[in-house]
Amino acid sequence: MSLQIVVVEDDPDIADVLVLYLQREGWSVSVAGDGARALDVIRARQPDLVLLDIGLPGDLDGTDVCRELRRFSDVPVMFLTARDDEVDRILGLELGADDYVTKPFSAREVVARIKAILRRGERGAPADGDAPLRYERAGIVVDGARREVTVEGDVVPLAAQEFALIEFLCRNLGIALSRQQILDGAWGEGWIGDIRTVDVHIRQLRRKVGDALPLETVRGVGYRLD
Ligand code: CA
């Protein structure tokens, strides 16, 4: 089935490039140039993902659109921002966006990130009959159904990507995984970025979950969860 993507962008040059690259993937694309139109299109099309510019003409900017659409949809949202400091502001608003790209961006990168988001979504919703993931060790519980990690009963606040990482490790218990395998499995094969991002997230995970987590560094390979 072809994916439906809604591009909310008032700059026709940027919209055209995005449409070109998204259609090249075989996806159906609708474009809306302002916030009100965007909400109409999203309601009508029920897309698989929304690319949402922050600076829009009219009464509603991108953050307003995101807040409004969250009333009726949990569609993944990727923000297109003009500046890095805008990302900080958006994060502070806790709008439930799935990713951010800062202009100028490469359309190829946007496509890769979309694929990664959609793959995460698939993993988040296991097929019927799939037992939801559950890992229990040393007071640590990873609950795939609730998408939650607790230590001695206390919830550990993890970012979505940190949860995706621990979930992938739990699904490969006892196996020494290379950084590339972890990147492909937990970020998605379309991810473009430095492989050291794995180390950064592992460090975060260890810090947040604590020393009881039996996550070993395997010299010359990568990491293993026992
Ligand atoms: Ca704009």
Strand content: 15-25%
Distance between the first and last residues' Cα? 38 Å
Mean pLDDT: 87
How many domains? The number is 2
Tell me the structural class.
alpha/beta
Total number of helices: 8
CATH topology of the largest domain: Rossmann fold
Q: Provide the succession of SSEs.
A: EHEHEHEHEHEEEEHEHHEE
Rg on CA atoms, Å: 19 Å
Bound molecules: calcium ion
Topology (SSEs and partners):
Blueprint: E1 4-8, H1 12-24, E2 28-32, H2 35-45, E3 49-53, H3 62-69, E4 77-81, H4 84-93, E5 99-102, H5 107-124, E6 134-137, E7 140-143, E8 148-151, E9 154-155, H6 160-171, E10 177-178, H7 179-187, H8 197-209, E11 215-218, E12 222-225
Parallel strand pairs: 1-2, 1-3, 3-4, 4-5
Antiparallel strand pairs: 6-7, 7-8, 8-9, 10-12, 11-12
The structure holds calcium ion.
Calcium ion binds at residues 10-11, 53, 55-56.
Describe this protein's structure:
The structure is a single chain. The protein has helices at residues 12-24, 35-45, 62-69, 84-93, 107-124, 160-171, 179-187, 197-209; strands at residues 4-8, 28-32, 49-53, 77-81, 99-102, 134-137, 140-143, 148-151, 154-155, 177-178, 215-218, 222-225. The chain is 42% helix and 21% strand. It has 2 domains: 4-121, Rossmann fold; 134-225, Winged helix-like DNA-binding domain superfamily/Winged helix DNA-binding domain (Arc Repressor Mutant, subunit A, Orthogonal Bundle), CATH 1.10.10. It is elongated. The model is unreliable at 124-129 (pLDDT under 50). The longest helix has 18 residues, at 107-124. The strands form 3 sheets. Strands 2-1-3-4-5 form a 5-stranded parallel beta sheet, sandwiched between helices. By secondary structure, the chain is an alpha/beta fold. The structure holds calcium ion.
